[in-house]
Design a protein that fits this description.
2 domains
């Protein structure tokens, strides 16, 4: 097993190519992210393999676009509150922020809504349902962005045939264009550019979710010790914990 520092294709390709060609030719499918270097590595090292862009990397773009809209409103709420505090001070009055029916202030509403926007509605707690209702009433653009993000997940979850997937993604792109969200337009263009590799997902529903999950565990384990001093011992610990 070789461990390489970084993901530069010029460093990784020569190492993988040490595997006999006849074995590499047996690889039929590879899941990867949207990074160009990964596509190049797959093409050079596994020429017979179908490349599949992992659905979760596509969905992550939509989730980040949604969170960007929420964060924009949060910064505006902070700025509005700061101005209100300054005005109250000039008038030598006490400042009291608006408190919503669930006891959140506007700033708290926008901050605490972060995690519920990652979830499907049916997974919300009662508290999250109440918070979502208040959030969507005050910020309808956040609700519209949430619906777009969830619809993209629905396409990946429920579509079986690649042709239907192509049609549904095209209709989703039309909705994005009509919504007018700059960040979601970027997601839509990314899907359009990489659509062939994204649509390959619907052939076998292949995903590298387990590898991503394991990678997250490694990062969390590493962060507990604020980095790695002895790589060999670190790998030994990983083997004992996760192998």
């Amino acid at each position: 097993m070789a461990i390489l520092n970084g993901t530069k294709s010029e460093n990784i390709i020569p190492v993988i190519q040490k595997i006999p060609q006849r074995l590499r030719n047996k690889v039929q499918e590879i899941t990867l992210d949207l990074a160009g270097n990964m596509g190049l590595i797959a093409k050079k090292c596994f020429p017979n393999a179908v490349q599949v862009i992992d659905r979760f990397h596509v969905q992550q773009l939509a989730t980040e676009a949604l969170q960007e809209i929420r964060i924009k409103h949060r910064w505006q709420a902070i700025d509005d509150e700061n101005q209100a505090i300054d005005q109250a001070r000039k008038k030598k009055e006490a400042y009291f922020p608006e408190v919503l029916s669930n006891s959140d202030t506007i700033k708290q509403l926008l901050a605490r809504s972060r995690y519920l926007l990652y979830k499907s509605e049916h997974k919300w707690t009662i508290e999250q349902k109440d918070r979502a209702r208040l959030l969507f009433e005050r910020y309808p653009d956040v609700e519209k962005a949430y619906r777009l993000s969830q619809e993209l997940s629905w396409i990946f979850n429920t579509t079986i045939d690649k042709i239907y997937a192509f049609t549904r993604l095209a209709k989703w792109a039309d909705k994005v264009e009509q919504a007018g969200f700059k960040s979601f337009n970027t997601v839509s263009r990314t899907i359009n550019i990489h659509h062939k590799k994204i649509l390959n997902y619907f052939d076998n529903k292949s995903t590298n979710a387990s590898a991503e999950s394991f990678n997250a565990k490694i990062k969390a384990f590493r962060s507990q010790f604020r980095g790695v001093g002895d790589i060999n011992f670190f790998l030994f610990r990983l083997t004992k914990l996760f192998a």
